Amino acid sequence: MDVTIRPSALSGTIPAIASKSMAHRLLIMAALCPGTTDINCNATSKDIEATASCLEALGARIARTRLGFRVNPLPGTSATDNIRQATPGVRLDCGESGSTLRFMLPVVAALGHGASIDGHGRLAERPLSPLYEELVCHGVTLSKRGVLPLVVSGTLLPGRFSIPGNVSSQFVSGLLMAAPLLSAPSEIVVTEPVESRSYIRLTMRALAEFGVDVGVTRETVDGDRATVLSVSPARGAVSPGTVTVEGDWSNAAFWLAAGAIAGGVSVSGLDLSSAQGDRAIMACAAAFGARVGRSGNVASTSPDTLRGRTINVRGTPDLVPPLAAIAANAVGTTTIANAGRLRLKESDRLSTVSSALRAMGADVEEKTDALVIHGGNPLSGGVVDAANDHRIAMMAAIAGANATGPTTIRGAECVAKSYPRFFEDFRALGGIAEKG
Fold it and tell me: Measured between alpha carbons, how far is 364 from 371 in angstroms, rounded to an integer?
């Protein structure tokens, strides 16, 4: 689907959609603990549905309700049973969701009934080391790395897992959610530096919602500083009955970036003290010179003189597309640093951000792990290939709204991965988006 964006400053208030990151975690925890759990979730997406369908394939019953999801856990789950009655040997389709793959892999291994884990797009290219090796060292048999479907057999054994913190926080999160299923306490040793630490805190918050405490200590391991996360399966998870998915800062960041560029935008339904690292969009927008406001559950941005900055995105890589849109409209040079992990997203996001903005008239240099954007001149618009990457399509839309001419986004339907109603909300803020 092609969508053409015509210049029109975005302004107004839009409600945040439910956090995709938290929805994954709450669905998994609800499927693995006794009792029925109602999850209030005001939006879904292809990635969230991928996690739900994997849990259903394992034997959970998940009903879509007016408010979100009602989750009945895997058969045999009770306050006194070990959870070992997942449907054996099933195929789990993760779609294009890296979170689903990296979370479900250790969970399936902990359940011990085996499965074939499949996916699409660039999913097979997303790294699984060192999680792959740690699972093998703890009793799991896996088929060839880097090829989907990935066949899992054997049962994950408890113990001490070592994960470098500079690869992917999703490996740590997957092990944290699997640990309550194991037969004895486990420790996850995360060596410094830890990138995307906020996502680990988000997982710990999800576990806490279901009564699972995670112990945190500091150690020195082979001369390196490390955080040790300890989980005991003694009590197991307990359903809270009802839980609400908080608003999504990652997607709200696009609206807040748009407000910083022109017009002024507020996003309601956000937790201003959230563990989500992408709430850093507010500090970043302020660093560029935009006006920012916080009140209750509402975050707001409005334009002022924007000037280029150096921004370290080591812990917040998903912010790069909206930050790049701001940078293209800021006077002077912006360096978006420590962004090398973006090459392994739905697209090579350093390359696709660069290509998209250049197609719109921006001056962008692509480095090995950084982008250098020379702003100050209005974007002209152009034709942008979304590269099957939801965040590229959304970036092009908000940047196109402030261009001097139209911007056509090829393959704009990819926004459904995380934000199916993105263009509806874009129009609600006064944007002009025409299908064609």
Answer: 7
Tokens found for residue 10: 């975005």
Q: What is the pLDDT of residues 181-237, one digit of tens each?
A: 999 999 999 999 888 899 999 999 999 999 999 999 998 878 789 999 999 987 678
Note the pLDDT tens digit of each residue in 327-375: 999 999 999 999 998 888 888 999 999 999 999 999 999 999 999 999 9
Give the separation between CA 34 and CA 239, rounded to whole angstroms: 6
Domain boundary among 237, 269, 302: 237
Query: How many helices and strands (H and E) does the chain possess?
Result: 12, 24
Q: Give dist(CA 179, CA 185) in Å, integer.
A: 8
If DSSP codes are grouped into helix, strand and coil, which group holds residue 180?
helix
Which two tokens mark 318? Answer: 């998903």
Examine residue 83 and state whether it is found in any structural domain, yes or no: yes
298 within a domain of the structure (yes/no): yes
378: CB partners within 8 A, 6+ apart: 329, 361, 402, 403, 404
Residue 108: give the domain boundaries: 20-237
Q: Is 2 a catalytic residue?
A: no
* Residue 232, phi-psi category: left (phi > 0), alpha (psi -120 to 50), beta (remainder): beta
Q: Which of 188, 176, 185 is nearest to 233 (CA)?
A: 185
Q: Domain check: are 129 and 259 in the same one?
A: no
CATH of the domain at 263: 3.65.10.10
Three-class SS of residue 212? coil
How far apart CA 24 and CA 27 sit, in angstroms, is: 5
The SS3 of residue 424 is helix
Q: How does DSSP assign 335-352, residue by residue?
A: EEES-GGGGGSSS-HHHH
Q: Assess if residue 242 is contained within a domain.
A: no
Q: What is the pTM of this model?
A: 0.94
Task: Given the residues 38, 47, 118, 318, select the one marked as catalytic.
Answer: 318
- What separation in angstroms does the CA of 355 have from each of 347, 352, 366? 12, 5, 9
- If asked whether residues 231 and 293 sit together in one domain, one would say no
Q: What is the CA radius of gyration of the chain?
A: 22
